[in-house]
Design goal:
single chain, Rossmann fold, 5-stranded parallel β-sheet, binds adenosine-5'-diphosphate, binds thymidine-5'-diphosphate
Length: 244
Amino acid sequence: MTTAMDDPGTPAESHPGETGSTQIPDTPQPEAGLPGFELPRRGRGESWFIAFEGSDGSGKSTQATLLARRTGALLTRQPGGTRLGEVLRDLTLGGSAGEVTDRAEALLMAADRAQHVELVIRPTLDSGRSVICDRYIGSSIAYQGHGRGLDPETVERISLWACDGLLPDVVIYLRVDHEESRDRTGSPRDRIEASGEGFHERVRSGFDSLAETEPSWVTVDGKGSIQEVAQRVEAAVLEHLERR
Ligand code: ADP
Ligand code: TYD
């Protein structure tokens, strides 16, 4: 697996300050028992931008890691993926900043996205390599919009400005029921995860409505073994990208 943090060949390398750890921390290392495969061909030198979305514990990091390994795409994540992003991650998730207001949280996520798109995602795509991002704008709409109760359209507009309009070619929405994701994550691991049941229900219905309305979103059933889900992810990605 290569990540924005350890890949010597990515444009992130041209911003040495942007490389942090050698791999995404806490990312499970799934069995690589599945063969590699190629993403569909696109115009000359063009690449694909794939995002994973879903509730905490839905298996995004596991599946994003597997897909990156199998296709050779760059794996990165939000919040994070740049040096500033990792600091913002700590401020928003780690609790080191004390109280963070809802609007401040939305703006910090947008700042992370601005930095990440300009320094890592866009240059990598421009170099002809595909990018897989663990969470993107959908997470801001679901968590800061639906979850925190900020206007989802405003949150989306701020994020779209932050990322200069860059949208994924396909968003894989991994869906598992609430009990399953809670069983997988156990007790809350960060400030946002600890935001209570009502919050997470609103986040989930926010994701559901995005999946219903956004043509680039594909819902993938996250139940079953890691390998079973990976096969569903592969089929969904290929089918969606081949149609583009
Ligand atoms: P997310 O990134 O959505 O929070 P993770 O990929 O980190 O989810 O998975 C959360 C936990 O669930 C991890 O311990 C991971 O090993 C486990 N897990 C992931 N996919 C599956 C699966 N299909 N079946 C059982 N456990 C899984
Ligand atoms: P992370 O550990 O990466 O996610 P997961 O638990 O799914 O593996 O934590 C990221 C947290 O940040 C997660 O709780 C969702 C939240 N988040 C937002 O609230 N808004 C955003 O825009 C993004 C990208 C993440």
